[in-house]
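Input.
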Amino acid sequence: MLASASYDRTIRIWSLRTGKCVKFIDYQISQINTMNFTGTGRDLVVGSFQRADLFDINSGFTPKATVQVPKNVTAVGFEKNGRWMYTGGEEGTCRLWEMRSGRMIVVCALSLKTHVLSMAVNTNQTELFVSTACGRSSSGTSA
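Output.
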């Protein structure tokens, strides 16, 4: 599957096999800055202004969970098995959110004091890499 976002504040989920749109999500909450699927492809996180929304793409158009942050969310993603999600953004804080309980709980927060541009999980699933607006890259252990 592939997810695309548009200036009209919509999200489309595409089948890579057929090239057709299989799901349409009307996201009138805010502009969409970033998106990422879980490893299973079942959930999609959308980062926008002051929030990240988690959607089950098979069951509905309403977010199943929302986390609030102070500024734009510019980086989102998941650990491969869906145990935790990460967010980063303009306020300069990287957060890990525990997902197993069905509630989004911050389990770790790292303040970098500069905009977070991107984040990625190492293939070992225990390190998180972060790049920032000041040109620095950092890594930290998540487990």
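The domain at 31-141 is CATH 2.130.10.10 (Methylamine Dehydrogenase; Chain H).
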